[in-house]
Automatic annotation (TrEMBL):
Residues 1-59 are annotated as: Disordered. Gene3D superfamilies: Leucine-rich Repeat Variant (1.25.10.10). Residues 1-10 have a biased composition (Basic residues). This is Interferon-related developmental regulator 1. It comes from Setophaga kirtlandii. PANTHER family: INTERFERON-RELATED DEVELOPMENTAL REGULATOR (PTHR12354), INTERFERON-RELATED DEVELOPMENTAL REGULATOR 1 (PTHR12354:SF6). GO terms for cellular component: nucleus. One of its GO terms (biological process) is cell differentiation. Residues 50-59 have a biased composition (Acidic residues).
């Protein structure tokens, strides 16, 4: 009797002979392709001394073959297969620049995303909205991106305003709507329309807090937070006369959200307040807020919150954020942060820049540093200038040998051990007095 064939011996194929089960995009693919695409931008520490030569052309062809397979699978009958394909494309788009590849297939990708958002369930809609963000980040601000937004914008707005859609899908679409509008919109009318759509969502949090004396929160908080943050991002690119109108409309209402039970809502409201004060003082150096004493009292209470019914991690995060917010509102101060990427450094020295950086970091994840090095759009947003091109000789001089790295790490470890030993000795001496 002949032995039955093993099920795993052949790949299952769908209509047209297209492989149904494609291996997901991996971190190995990302690292190899990142080096091959942008060796001039890469961090010198990422280069090994005696690494094997990589056939860049073959690697590129293999990558494009995989991506084409994922794009085809976004039209598969199986929702699980479509979602997996969307997630794999998201991973690829966040970890490298694929402008030319996407340019040739932008309409196909746009149609697939539109179909998944319209007809998919919650998880698929979230994945499609995330991919739409990355698609616009890849394309940057231009005519092609405007065409993408003209197609997807109405669909996103419809989901955001649809009370029957899942909260997660509405949340993802609200974030996507704000980011895509920020990237592509030159039309001031479209900008105001998008902001109004987002306003209609998060302003419901004002009413909820007023009806319940500011102590209740619902499952809609995640949607309100996303809409508020997306709206705040768009406010940073508004003309000054519109900024003044929005400040007058929201500055006296936002403090009510500081009493919300949801930590993320309190933090989003606090950071938005800090940004509004920053913008208000830019437009008017003598800006005066009537309820400053009451507001600073609220902010100080949140910056020193010690309620036992809250988790320690939440309290630590809240206190850290609201210390900075309080300094911004009360002292007009911002704690400067430094971001390192490759041989470059970027300083975040204001709330507008911080809000923008945090938004794109959220969607790009670990690929944020790579995009800061090589994505023209992001470099323009953060005023970094053209990408820094380093030749092989410069990279070689910047590279640290393994032996030198070993010596440095050993010295740092010894110094750390000595410092900690002294602290332990001090604690031991204090203990002897009791």
């Amino acid at each position: 009797m002949p032995k039955p064939k093993k099920r795993g011996s052949n790949h299952q194929r769908g209509a047209g002979g297209q492989p149904r089960n494609v291996q997901p995009f991996s971190d190995e693919d990302a690292s190899i392709e990142t080096m091959s695409h942008c060796s001039g931008f890469s961090d010198p520490a990422s280069f090994t001394e005696d690494g094997p030569e990589v056939d860049e052309e073959a690697t590129q062809e293999d990558l494009e073959y995989k991506l084409k397979g994922f794009i085809d699978l976004t039209l598969d009958k199986s929702a699980k297969t479509r979602q997996a394909a969307l997630e794999s494309l998201k991973s690829a788009f966040s970890s490298k620049i694929l402008y030319e590849f996407i340019m040739e297939r932008r309409m196909t990708l746009t149609d697939s995303i539109e179909r998944c958002i319209k007809k998919g369930k919650s998880d698929e809609q979230c994945a499609a909205a995330g991919l739409a963000c990355l698609l616009c980040v890849q394309m940057g601000s231009g005519i092609e991106s405007e065409e993408i937004f003209k197609t997807l914008g109405p669909v996103l707005k419809k989901i955001v305003c649809d009370g029957t859609a899942s909260i997660q899908a509405r949340q993802a679409c609200a974030t996507c709507l704000g980011i895509c509008c920020f990237i592509v919109t030159d039309d001031i009318t479209e900008l105001y329309s998008t902001m109004e759509c987002l306003e209609n969502i998060f302003m419901k949090a004002y009413q909820r807090d007023r009806d319940t004396n500011g102590v209740s929160s619902t499952h809609n908080s995640v949607l309100h937070v996303s809409a508020l943050l997306a709206w705040t991002l768009l406010l940073t690119i508004c003309p000054m006369n519109e900024v003044k109108k929005k400040i007058e409309m929201h500055l006296h209402k936002l403090p009510s959200l500081l009493s919300c039970d949801d930590l993320n809502m309190r933090i989003a409201a606090g950071e938005t307040l800090a940004l509004l004060f920053e913008l208000a003082r830019e437009t008017d150096a003598d800006f005066f807020y009537e309820d400053m004493d009451l507001l600073t009292e609220k902010l100080r209470a949140l910056a020193t919150d010690g309620n036992k019914h809250r988790a320690k991690v939440d309290k630590r995060k809240q206190r850290s954020v609201f210390r900075d917010v309080l300094r911004a509102v009360e002292e007009r101060d911002f704690p400067t942060e430094m971001v390192k990427f490759g041989p470059e450094r970027m300083y975040i020295d204001c709330w507008v820049k911080k809000q923008t950086y945090e938004t794109f970091k959220e969607i790009l994840g670990s690929g944020m540093q790579y995009h800061l090095q090589s994505n023209d759009f992001l470099r323009n947003v953060f005023e970094l200038g053209p990408p820094v091109m380093l030749d092989a000789a410069t990279l070689k001089t910047m590279k640290i040998s393994r032996f030198e790295r070993h010596l440095y790490n050993s010295a740092a470890f010894k110094a750390r051990t000595k410092a900690r030993s002294k602290c332990r000795d001090k604690r031991a001496d204090v203990g002897e007095f009791f």
